[in-house]
Design goal:
0% strand; mainly alpha; 92% helix; 317 residues; f41 fragment of flagellin, N-terminal domain; Helix Hairpins
């Protein structure tokens, strides 16, 4: 093996070990800090509790009508002993908590020193890997071809992941809009029922207010469906997903092609809500599928990137 390559491989292994240690120490520091904050909060609470318990003891020790009453009943000493025991219990808990705080602080500060010693491992690893990669590209045609192929595949996977992410984001907004529409239609239906039972002008006004809100939400949903359709042109959809998108688009048109004029009729409101619930289910199902595809694309990208890095790391000349 080329001595330079052997040296780079050794350095890469050392950097990898240091980077793993750094991640472990940083996670440990987060845990320590959380525990430290919890114990500090507990110490404050115990100090407040101890002051209260001590005040109860002091109260019994002072001469007062209450003390005279307890003395006559021969219960003062018993009550005083109870209060002292409670104060002692809290005092011991506070002492242990403060000791724990000191220990945690020492561990936390020690871990900070470890981080300072390990920081920079990732940057050094990348620097050495780039040096080795440039050397490979200049001397080994076969490995260079493999690296270029993996790089191109990883780039495609990254772009695909971005497209699925954008489609899922648009669908997530659509789900929120449809949920809002369903809630508003439900409220309109409830107030419509009340109106039919003699609710009067107020209930009728509230019903129409919810109807207006629902129309606004559906209008937003219609815009989001159009945006989603544009986003999905960039990704490969199964036939089932294409059917769902078509149904969502048709649903939005259905709302604005004559139904609005009849919304004052209670049955139409319920019919609209049924349609909205059905399309909300479709949108949620679509979102689940988009999230799965996004996760698959991200996993594929990470796998290709790691495969390329392994090829560089394991190259022995």
């Amino acid at each position: 093996m080329n001595e330079t390559i052997a040296k780079w491989n050794e350095q890469l292994e050392q950097c990898r070990e240091r980077a793993a240690s750094l991640m472990h120490v940083e996670q440990r520091r987060e845990t320590l800090l959380t525990r430290l904050n919890e114990e500090r909060k507990r110490a404050i609470e115990l100090e407040v509790q101890l002051d209260k318990e001590q005040a109860d003891v002091d109260k019994l020790l002072k001469l007062s009508w209450s003390n005279m009453f307890h003395t006559i009943l021969r219960s003062k000493d018993e009550q005083l002993e109870i209060e002292r025991q409670q104060a002692l219990s809290v005092s011991l808990k506070l002492q242990l908590t403060k000791q724990e705080i000191v220990t945690l602080e020492q561990e936390y500060y020690a871990s900070g020193t470890q981080v300072a010693e390990l920081v920079g491992a990732d940057e050094q690893y990348e620097q050495i890997k780039r040096q080795k990669e440039q050397w490979i590209l200049s001397v080994d045609a076969d490995t260079t071809q493999q690296l270029e192929t993996l790089e191109a595949q990883a780039t495609d996977a990254r772009l695909e992941s971005k497209e699925w992410y954008e489609a899922a984001a648009a669908c997530r907004q659509l789900v929120c809009s449809l949920e809002d529409a369903v809630n508003k239609l439900d409220s309109a239906a409830n107030w419509g029922t009340f109106d039919m039972l003699g609710g009067g002008l107020i209930s009728n006004s509230i019903k129409h207010s919810h109807i207006d809100d629902a129309k606004s939400a559906i209008s937003t949903a219609q815009c989001l469906v159009n945006r989603l359709k544009k986003e999905l042109k960039d990704v490969r959809l199964s036939s089932d997903l294409k059917v769902q998108i078509g149904g969502l688009a048709t649903f939005a048109d259905f709302f604005f092609d004559g139904l609005i004029a009849d919304w004052i009729v209670q049955g139409k409101i319920k019919e609209s809500m049924s349609q909205a619930l059905s399309q909300l289910h479709n949108a949620r199902t679509l979102l689940e599928e988009l999230d799965r595809e996004k996760a698959k694309a991200e996993s594929k990208y990470e796998s290709l990137k790691q495969e390329r890095e392994r090829l560089i790391e394991q190259f022995a000349g």
